[in-house]
Amino acid sequence: MKIAPTWDFYYIDEVLSSWRYTPTNHTATLHKAGLPIEAFYYVTRRCLANPAVQEMFGSKWDRLVQESLLFCSWRSAVLNGLAAVRARNPKQVQETLKTVLKEDPYRTNLLRFPVCAGKQAVRSFFPPKLPPARE
Known about the structure:
The chain has 135 residues and is an all-alpha fold. 64% of the residues lie in helices and 0% in strands.
């Protein structure tokens, strides 16, 4: 979103990078312990506060804000929910849901939330076929 108002960019239908999971890498460690999900909302709101971004989306602005907050909500809740299940920590699930309710003012997102989370879970178990990472 920072690049979009200033520079042209294009979609390329090719895999240009890959991510290798190891149990000790930084991202995996965060996924096990849970994430400070307020950061998702903070970064999203900072990007949405850019007047050039607002101008770029014009009449679709309200929808973009709602979709952006939905993404924050389901992504952070899924990541923290999985970490909480792994750690057998129901309090973490409760705290995550409290944060989502506080940060996302769109109550219709709560109805859409399970569908988005379900799609993400299915993608986790049945990821798309990607070419192997280059060494």
